[in-house]
Design goal:
This protein is an all-beta fold. The protein has strands at residues 8-13, 17-19, 23-31, 44-47, 53-59, 62-67, 71-79, 82-91, 96-99, 102-108, 116-122, 132-136, 146-150, 157-163, 171-181, 187-198, 204-206, 210-216, 223-231, 241-246, 255-259, 266-272, 280-289, 298-307.
Length: 314
């Protein structure tokens, strides 16, 4: 029996680029001097970088290889002193990434906060689907303060997160939002969420927000009114200031406003004088401000009526 000498080997692959975690099939064709196919020969398969491309199983001239990690590797078939090669590129596999990568927000004790969105993307190649999300808290926690919603189950998509300080005392709270997918044998990524809860801020409260004053034309005697300024919130209401604001195009200088104290409780002392003014109605407002108040400024509207001497001043 004549044994035909092996002349050359041709290695073929179903693909030359795969994604990490995927497999491909390769086939070695053994040819004689006349190009005739040879069978029954032993073939040894190997790769130049098993961390990139690893052998899964081989049966004769067929082999299955795995994309073990990103990079480029060479698949080699050897038989009877002859070799043939095929280069394969392995791309980075899919991974879940968040934008932003972590979240830190603040809230006010006893109040719900506004919703925020976090993007979910693919940090590698391929597609990701079948997403699910859940939240966990470190240690014992009796208040479920973070609600989590997925806006889609296929990447790209986003998470809607709504923290709530209802039932929480002032302090710092943490949670972990985990997003998972069955893609590529199972993916998971964690988003760290920090929630800083602060005590309710001070609130400027006015005894009234409208004051009416009146005087006779030509009078040089000031007229007065007082408005109590208190704190309707928590903490100390400090840094109080009062500023008179006149309407554009109207007379100025007839109204004075002072505070008895820069900290609540305080009294807003309002005075108006008719000197130099004609009969009629004059309007202005007083802005009460504080750098620590939740809402600042707040306003007291002032109406000043100047009547002729023969008119009855109400």
């Amino acid at each position: 029996m004549v044994v035909v000498e092996l002349d050359r080997i041709i290695v073929s692959t179903t693909r030359n680029t795969i994604i990490e975690g995927e497999t491909l099939n390769a086939f070695a064709e053994l040819l004689g001097p006349e190009g005739e196919a040879l069978t029954g020969r032993t073939i040894v398969w190997s790769t130049t970088n098993p961390s990139v491309l690893s052998l899964s199983q081989s049966v004769g001239s067929d082999v299955v290889v795995n994309g073990a990690g990103p990079g480029v590797a060479t698949l080699r078939a050897a038989s009877e002193g002859r070799t043939a090669e095929a280069q394969v590129e392995v791309l980075l596999g899919p991974s879940l990434v968040f934008t932003p990568s972590e979240v830190s927000v603040s809230g006010i004790e006893g109040e719900a906060s506004t919703a925020l969105n976090v993007g979910i993307g693919n940090g590698g190649n391929g597609s990701i689907s079948g997403l699910s999300a859940f939240v966990s808290y470190p240690g014992p926690n009796t208040v479920d303060w973070l609600s989590v919603g997925l806006n889609g189950t296929t990447v790209p998509t986003s998470l809607t997160l709504v923290p709530s300080a209802v039932g929480l005392s002032a302090g710092t709270y943490t949670a972990t939002v985990r997003v998972t997918s069955p893609t590529a044998g199972g993916l998971a990524s964690d988003l760290d969420f920090t929630f800083v809860v602060t005590p309710p801020p001070p609130v400027i409260a006015l005894q009234t927000d409208a004051v009416g004053l009146s005087a006779l034309l030509g009078s040089s005697q000031a007229v007065f009114s007082n408005v109590a300024v208190t704190n309707a919130g928590a903490g100390a209401l400090t840094g109080l200031e009062a500023e008179v604001q006149y309407l554009p195009g109207t007379a100025e200088g007839w109204l004075t406003a002072t505070l008895s104290s820069s900290s609540a409780p305080s009294t807003l002392r309002i005075s108006a004088v008719a000197t130099g003014l004609q009969a009629g109605n004059y309007r202005a407002r007083i802005a009460i401000t504080s750098p620590v108040a939740r809402e600042s400024p707040v306003y007291v509207e002032v109406t000043f009526r100047i009547a002729q001497a023969r008119e009855r001043v109400r």
